[in-house]
Amino acid sequence: MAAIAQPVLTETLDLEDQVKQNGSVNIQDLHTSAAKLSIAENATVDGSSDPVKTPFIKPSSASRVPVALSLSPDQAARYEKLLTIVKSWTTKPSSTPNPPEHPLTDSDRIWLTRECLLRYLRATKWNVHEAGVRLQATLTWRHEYGLETHSPEYISPENATGKQVLSGYDVAGRPCLYLNPGKQNTERSNKQVEHLVFMLERTIDLMPAGQEMLALVINFDKKMGGERPPLWQGKQVLNILQSHYPERLGKALVINIPWLVWPFFKLINPFIDPATREKLKFDQDLRQFVPPSQLLKTHGGDVNFVYEHDVYWPSLNELAAKKRTMMTDRWEKAGKKVGESEYYLRGGEKRGTADEHAS
């Protein structure tokens, strides 16, 4: 099996000059494989710096995306077997008898990347059949949960106070999603879970080439009032994360846990799989996990971040939409193949489908 090509970016855009001259970046210019080369260190979408009001465009120079490990011959063979099975799919199951199934869409096919299949194989300990079953279950869930119908406008009221913020990258280049329960502004409902799923999807949109994981940064704020999260909601979120986002969590950094929340963690602990439990870090210095230049001051970093919903929300969603458009364009130009390389789709020059890597 051939090794995955190392990152090579050939185009150069003068986005740094855009930031200097205009105070912001034309997001349309991010619609290219090489845009990140020329973006200024710690540049934000609107050029804001003190205070920062919009997302960072790329990881800082202090971040290093790890190089993907090569597959063993046995793992490569199992991957090839799964890929052959997935390529044969034309429909996805329905959870109800009417209709019994749904047609497989281009949106489904672009989601079924090489790395996606590998994530499900790792999550099932390289059991090809079980990985296929779980992939189909997630395809069904994504369709029936309405993942693509949850628009920024629909979710917007849930984030009006900035209770979830996507900002910066950790030392491994994983985008950081900040959860701020103390800024809760809505009544308990399934829409709160839809909000989290929406933000997880935007976090995935902003992953740099070569990075498949995200970092959750949860600040409970010891002064927060209210009750602890309900157990049903915690179990629902865990089920979604473990069933439909396997191998996506890189770190979960939790700080300022009030006494009333600790019992919740004890209750939810049995439902957390061991691999996820190992990624949880409680009340540690976050500067060892996130470069201070991209870590919010409220969490021990240097970034003076101010949440203004009318500024942040459209900038996040426009940036994420452009990233998705870039990926779709590259996928279509490469032949619209199941098993396409996420590294290529996210801007890497070398196209690498499963067929090529296994040769």
Task: Give the overall average pLDDT.
Answer: 85
- CA radius of gyration is 20 Å
Count of helical segments?
A: 13
**Based on DSSP secondary structure assignment, what is the total number of beta strands?**
7
Q: Give the strand line-up of the largest sheet.
A: 3-4-5-6-7
Q: What is the molecular shape?
A: globular
Distance between the first and last residues' Cα:
5 Å
Q: Could you tell me the strand content as a percent range?
A: 5-15%
Order of helix and strand elements from N to C terminus: HHEEHHHHEEHEHEHHEHHH
Assign a percent range to the helix content: 25-40%
Major sheet attributes: 5 strands, mixed
Regions with little confidence, pLDDT below 50 for 5+ residues: 1-37, 354-359
List strands and helices in order, with pairings.
Blueprint: H1 15-22, H2 73-87, E1 91-93, E2 101-103, H3 106-111, H4 114-123, H5 128-144, H6 152-155, E3 164-169, E4 175-179, H7 190-205, E5 214-219, H8 231-244, E6 249-255, H9 262-268, H10 274-277, E7 280-282, H11 309-333, H12 342-345, H13 354-357
Parallel strand pairs: 4-5, 5-6, 6-7
Antiparallel strand pairs: 1-2, 3-4
